Amino acid sequence: MIGRLHSVSFRAMGTACAVSVTAREADRLLADRALRAGSAEVEACERALSRFDPASDLSRLNRASGQWVAIDERLERALRAALRIRTETAGRFDPTILPALVAAGYDRSFELLEERPARTAARWRAGAGIDLSPGRARIERGAAVDLGGIGKGFAAARTLAAMRAAWPALPGAIVDLGGDIAAGGTPPDRGPWRIAVADPTGRRPSLGTVLIDEGAVATSGRNARRFGPGRSLHHLIDPATGAPASAGPLAVTVVAPDATNAEGHATALAVSTLAQARAHLAGRPDVAALYVEPSGDTHAIGALPLVGAPEQTGAAR
Amino acid sequence: MRRVWATVVSLWMVLAIVAVLAWTRQPPAAVPSRPVATALLVRGKNGTTQRVVVVGAATSAAPHATTQASPPAP
Question: Chain B within 8 Å of A40 (Cβ-Cβ)?
Answer without folding.
Answer: no
